[in-house]
Design brief:
- It is a single chain.
- The chain is mainly beta and about 90 residues long.
- The protein has one domain.
- It is built from one helix and four strands.
- The protein has a four-stranded antiparallel beta sheet.
- About 10% of the residues are buried.
- The model has no long low-confidence stretch (mean pLDDT about 90).
């Protein structure tokens, strides 16, 4: 890739509303996407701090990449939308 895309991680409620988000360059800003090579595996970790006021219930975590200059999200070939991959539902109790 020639561009440096950023990762987004969103926590969505049952209606698809964004509750929390975290954005950044991969691997704590040390592996911009322009340094990725074909066939290389990149391990990247993100955490979301859930507020004490978060209601109990089912939530979805989705991730994707976007251009930080234009805000345009990159398309994905798998996922609930054309721009994000769902990592699975979580239950908050």
């Amino acid at each position: 890739m020639q561009n440096n895309y950023q990762v987004f991680v969103h926590l969505l409620d049952a209606q698809g509303n964004k509750i929390l988000q975290r954005d950044g360059q991969p691997v704590q800003w040390t592996r911009p996407t322009s340094t990725w090579r074909e066939g290389e595996y990149i391990t990247d970790h993100y955490g979301l701090l859930l507020p004490d006021t978060l209601s109990s219930g089912q939530y979805r975590v989705v991730v994707g990449l976007y251009d930080p200059v234009t805000g345009q999200r990159l398309p994905v070939s798998a996922g609930p939308t054309d721009y994000a991959i769902e990592l699975g539902p979580i239950t908050v109790r």
